[in-house]
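Objective 1b. Sequence-to-structure analysis of OSTM1 protein.
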Amino acid sequence: NSSESHNCAKSILTSDRLQIVVTLSEFFNETWEAANCANCLKNNSEGLSNSTEEFLDLFNKSLTCFEHNLQGQAIDLSPNNYTEVCKNCNETYTKLNDLYNHLQRINRQGGESAHSAHLCIDVEDAMNITRKLWSRTFNCSLPCSDTVPVIAVSSFILFLPIVFYLSSFLHSKQKKRILILPKRIQSNASLVNIQEKYS
């Protein structure tokens, strides 16, 4: 029915008591919005954005790398010894992690999809799965590049009290001890003289 009149829409969409078509339409629209699906698409929604395709490609490469390095070794390895996976898949995982962080920064500013806030749920779930495998299952970790600045700042803060007390000690006025001489009666010879005068 090509008619777009109000009566036609009312008879088709709301004719039943449950209004199942309207309810389902609202449900799918709310799910689409909550999952930020538009953030994975190009502006005109003709397909996946270039960055999403790049991310999903790297995601598949990471999973393939994990699987490839575990083949035939999963039985022999102890649960905490996945050094081959960590070593061989480090580069792929690092690229994926960097791309995800980059996409988050772009998305906050309104990137390819012109939608802001969160990435679409597919990208976020894919990254969560990869990070969980990398850190919890394989016990791998990325080297921290901020180690030197952290150590430098920590050392500076630790030495601040020492510098403070030394400078306050050196620059404060030293109180010199002034000896106060008590007022005593003059020597014994003068005492004898006084007694002689009165006698």
